[in-house]
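re: the backbone from monday

yeah here it is again, tokenized this time
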């Protein structure tokens, strides 16, 4: 629902000409030049120049930025007359905030493109947080002939990058030139055009397999140890959000009173957070990456993945259990978390340790997850554990196909007098095969959930009559049983 609303919002902002002509068209971008300049104080600027082919109708070109971390300036519009570009004295612009709870620090400045001219738009964005420079997209929403990036890095810093899906590109080149003060990295590409997904403009990449450069710029003392730099940066940001106050500690002591093992404490606190805290997504400036204060999360009983995982980790640490948070990439993210960049991850989880055993993986935003089983959304993904030892990567397990079986047992009797077949069926789910039903049970009352299940099994059994359906669920299993009636024939249903 949120995504649909955002899509229509952006369509309105992209194409104000709809109000005038009832027509709209995609931009044809002749070239995009983006110069990223890194400064010694760990700030950076992006100077962007975009040449757009002339269009029949006036349109609004969107510039996206984060008002908490970025400052947009020097927006200029040029129209091509003959062989030269002439700057417009007073270009028409309109700025709008994205009024969605988890994106409300994002801004869009729409710049009017006059009809009938080839147009060039220049602008500058200054950012106060170097870690926010985390990727260079090699794909576009509009038809784009070429994209040229130049990343100018002081020689007291090092630039690390990792190219994803490079083989899909028609053309890609990179080189670098070093002078007395800077190393200038240049990347030229004929980008891939992707299906419309406005969320990508805000760095939210879902269900995309597209080329991308993951980036990281580190100071001299971390040259060759970029993972530790990323770890230490995140650890420092999180540190001030962790200290529990006396009220929070008192509640944790009450919850764990009488428990005599670390494992019992882990199980109890994990279930407490999953059952009592509401998931609320937040994508506000650095709040898109850094958790809310743990005491505030406890008081409000809500937060997103990083908030809940940070609180759980700190609660476990308070009880003497080694615990950390870890950055992760879910199955629908653009990439796995195998390179130390903020764009590598879209999720945060909690890991705990008992003695020298493998980490215990917990995702407090997954209400049906059980400890000692893989988390469905990050199976076989790599996580980046943030810890005092410089950080580490850890590859997660998954359920095998054999562990995800669905077992149907059907017992039928023919009634020749009434020309029908009737009997009982039982369905047992293993691994994550029944998770779609478990989630449905949590989001519905019992009666409506049973109604949905009856429709599901009616479809499974060829639209024959289902009755007396019973759902049996506990922490170890999920199964269903009921009765089936097949009227007007004496043959078994063809599909189960």
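seq for it, each position gets an aa:
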């Amino acid at each position: 629902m949120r995504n649909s609303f955002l899509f229509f919002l952006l369509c309105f902002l992209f194409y104000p000409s709809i109000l005038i002509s009832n027509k709209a068209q995609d931009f044809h971008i002749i070239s995009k030049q983006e110069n990223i300049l890194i400064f010694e104080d760990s700030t950076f600027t992006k100077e962007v120049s975009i040449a757009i082919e002339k269009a029949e109708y006036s349109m609004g070109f969107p510039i996206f930025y984060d008002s908490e971390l970025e400052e947009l300036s020097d927006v200029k519009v040029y129209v091509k007359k003959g062989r030269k570009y002439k700057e417009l004295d007073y270009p028409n612009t309109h700025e709008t905030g994205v009024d969605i709870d988890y994106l409300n620090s994002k801004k869009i400045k729409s710049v009017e493109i006059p009809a009938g001219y080839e147009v060039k738009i220049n602008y500058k964005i200054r950012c106060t947080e170097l870690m926010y420079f985390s990727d260079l997209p090699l794909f576009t929403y509009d038809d784009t002939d070429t994209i040229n990036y130049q990343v100018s890095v002081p020689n007291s810093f090092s630039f690390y990058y990792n190219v994803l899906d490079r083989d899909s590109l028609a053309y890609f080149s990179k080189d670098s030139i070093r002078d007395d003060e800077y190393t200038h990295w240049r990347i030229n590409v004929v980008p891939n055009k992707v299906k419309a997904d406005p969320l990508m403009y805000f760095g939210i990449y879902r269900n995309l397999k597209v080329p991308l450069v993951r980036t990281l710029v580190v100071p001299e003392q971390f040259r060759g140890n970029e993972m530790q730099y990323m770890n230490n940066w995140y650890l420092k940001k999180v540190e001030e959000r962790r200290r529990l106050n006396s009220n929070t500690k008192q509640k944790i002591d009450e919850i764990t009173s009488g428990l005599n093992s670390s494992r019992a404490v882990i199980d109890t606190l994990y279930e407490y957070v999953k059952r009592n805290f509401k998931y609320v997504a937040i994508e506000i400036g650095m709040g898109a990456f850094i958790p809310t204060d743990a005491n505030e999360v406890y008081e409000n009983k809500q937060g997103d993945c990083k908030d809940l995982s940070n609180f759980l980790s700190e609660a476990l640490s308070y009880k003497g259990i080694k615990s950390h948070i870890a950055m992760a990439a879910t199955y629908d993210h653009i990439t796995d978390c195998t390179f130390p960049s903020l764009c590598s991850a879209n999720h945060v989880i909690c890991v705990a340790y008992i003695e020298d055993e493998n980490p215990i993986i917990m995702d407090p935003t997954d209400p049906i997850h059980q400890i000692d089983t893989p988390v469905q959304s990050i199976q076989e993904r790599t996580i980046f554990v943030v810890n005092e030892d410089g950080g580490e990567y850890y590859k997660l397990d998954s359920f095998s196909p054999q562990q995800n079986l669905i077992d149907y047992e059907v017992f039928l009797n023919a009634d020749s007098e009434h020309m029908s077949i009737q009997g009982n069926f039982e369905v047992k789910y293993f691994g994550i095969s029944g998770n779609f039903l478990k989630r449905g049970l949590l989001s519905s009352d019992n009666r409506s959930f049973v109604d949905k299940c009856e429709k599901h099994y009616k479809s499974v059994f060829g639209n024959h009559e289902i009755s007396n359906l019973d759902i049996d669920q506990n922490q170890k299993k999920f199964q269903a049983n009921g009765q089936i009636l097949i009227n007007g024939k004496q043959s078994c249903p063809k599909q189960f």
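Confidence is low (pLDDT under 50) at residues 1-10, 12-24. The chain is about 20% helix and 40% strand.
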